[in-house]
UniProtKB/TrEMBL annotation, chain A:
This is RNA polymerase sigma factor SigW. Residues 24-89 form the RNA polymerase sigma-70 region domain. Residues 128-180 form the RNA polymerase sigma factor 70 region 4 type domain. It comes from the Bacteria. Belongs to the sigma-70 factor family. ECF subfamily. Pfam families: Sigma70_r2, Sigma70_r4_2. InterPro entries: RNA_pol_sigma-70-like, RNA_pol_sigma-70_dom, RNA_pol_sigma-W_bacilli, RNA_pol_sigma70_r2, RNA_pol_sigma70_r4_t2, RNA_pol_sigma_r2, RNA_pol_sigma_r3/r4-like, WH-like_DNA-bd_sf. Keywords: Sigma factor, Transcription, Transcription regulation. The keyword Transcription applies. One of its GO terms (molecular function) is sigma factor activity. GO terms for biological process: DNA-templated transcription initiation. It comes from Candidatus Kurthia intestinigallinarum.
UniProtKB/TrEMBL annotation, chain B:
Pfam families: zf-HC2. Belongs to the zinc-associated anti-sigma factor (ZAS) superfamily. Anti-sigma-W factor family. This is Anti-sigma-W factor RsiW. Keywords: Membrane, Transmembrane, Transmembrane helix. It comes from Candidatus Kurthia intestinigallinarum. Residues 6-38 form the Putative zinc-finger domain. The chain crosses the membrane at residues 50-70, 91-110.
């Protein structure tokens, strides 16, 4: 593994807190990027990425130095983002009737921010559109697509990060690509 | 429209993952030449990849590292050798703690109970810290003397145990076992044996 990183990690473990700053600045770009793509919101991405680094710092003694440090960091960050996505999901039942209405359930309240009308999509800038399409992917596919195509990581490393078998990673990449293909339609 | 073999789409993804075998690739190419639907599908997938890859890098907010360094807890949680050892061997630690506590109670009961005590039985004569079974007297039970001496001149129909003291007998007649305990270790052994015996006797 990267000797410089290992050296910094040892320094931190020995109590030299400031050595951690080097580690943060080396990986901030990747972690922040992953968080942003997963969460689709700049403020939240910054907060999540910071939290990931803090978590990594607190649990640094559990990191196995024989393995790749970036894999370990990515794992902390993706788990954190997946947790946040789950927490954001509404915990009410969609079938439940909206209070004060008759026969109006939650489905009727939902559609608005889920799908944008065609003309609005066309007005979107490319970068905005990319993030929009990523955020429409189910979380399972979103994580692998981001790690594969934005972070450009090998499938084996994605399998290590997400702690799922290589075959499952492949299947999710395939389904993710198909899902995007359907989303994009005629682009 | 003829039905395309299902594995063609599978091959497309293998191709995009870069781990397609030569034979599959050959098959895929031949098929794409002859089938417009699949060719379109392949094109769309290639476009999807290009589309996602064109995502621009997001710049990290200013002062990110400083903010992280401000938020990290003051004391690093570096584990020292001992702590690491304890963390890695929880069962061993539990066993050791258990033994320490166990032996502590046993040893303390040996050291702390310095006061003289004797099993009560009719016919015993107690003078200071010396217990005497007088001549002609028969004790029909087990006899335990702690922190005192025992002189047996009569008969004892049972076991005799002397802890931290001397057992003296001249013409004694003891039907059971005679035991003299003066060391902590022996005391421990005796306590354990006794405990087990009690356990069995209550089970009966």
């Amino acid at each position: 593994m990267d000797p410089l990183i290992n050296k910094r990690i040892k320094q931190v473990l020995k109590g030299d807190q400031s050595a951690y700053a080097d580690i943060v600045s080396l990986y901030q770009q990747s972690l922040h990027q992953v968080c942003y793509r997963m969460l689709g919101n700049k403020e939240e991405a910054e907060d999540a990425a910071q939290e990931a680094f803090i978590k990594a710092y607190i649990h640094l003694h559990t990191y196995d130095q024989k393995r790749k440090f970036s894999t370990w960091l990515y794992r902390i960050a993706t788990n954190l983002c997946i947790d946040r996505i789950r927490k954001k999901k509404p915990d009410y039942y969609l079938d439940a009737e909206v209070p004060g209405t008759e026969g109006l359930d939650m489905y009727s309240q939902l559609a608005v921010d889920e799908l944008l009308p065609e003309e609005e999509l066309e007005r979107m800038e490319l970068q905005e559109r990319i993030q929009y399409e990523i955020s429409r992917l189910p979380d399972k596919y979103r994580a692998v697509i981001i790690l594969k195509y934005i972070e450009e990581l090998p499938l084996q490393e994605i399998s290590d990060i997400l702690d799922i078998p290589l075959g499952t990673v492949k299947t999710r990449v395939h389904r993710g690509r198909e899902a995007l293909r359907k989303q994009l339609g005629d682009l | 429209m003829k039905q395309c073999p299902e594995h063609v789409v599978e091959y497309m993804h293998e191709y995009l993952d870069g781990d397609i075998s030569q034979q599959h690739e050959k098959e895929l190419r031949t098929h794409l030449k002859s089938c417009d639907t699949c060719k379109e599908h392949m094109n769309e997938l290639t476009n999807v990849v290009a589309f996602i890859k064109s995502a621009a890098a997001i710049s990290v907010p200013a002062g990110f590292t400083t903010n992280v360094m401000h938020r990290i807890p003051m004391k690093p949680r570096a584990l020292k050798g001992v702590q690491r050892f304890l963390r890695r061997h929880p069962m061993l630690v539990a066993a050791v703690v258990f033994l320490i506590l166990m032996s502590a109670t046993l040893f303390s009961s040996f050291n702390n109970s310095q006061q003289f005590s004797v099993t009560k039985a009719p016919g015993l004569i107690v003078e200071g810290e010396t217990v005497t079974v007088p001549v002609g007297e028969t004790i029909k039970s087990d006899l335990v003397v702690e922190n005192g001496n025992l002189v047996v001149e009569g008969n004892v129909e049972g076991d005799v145990t002397v802890v931290n003291g001397k057992y003296m007998a001249s013409t004694a007649n003891v039907t059971g076992n005679v035991e003299e305990i003066n060391e902590s270790f022996e005391w421990l052994w005796y306590s354990i044996k006794n405990g087990v015996k009690k356990l069995f006797s209550t089970a009966d």
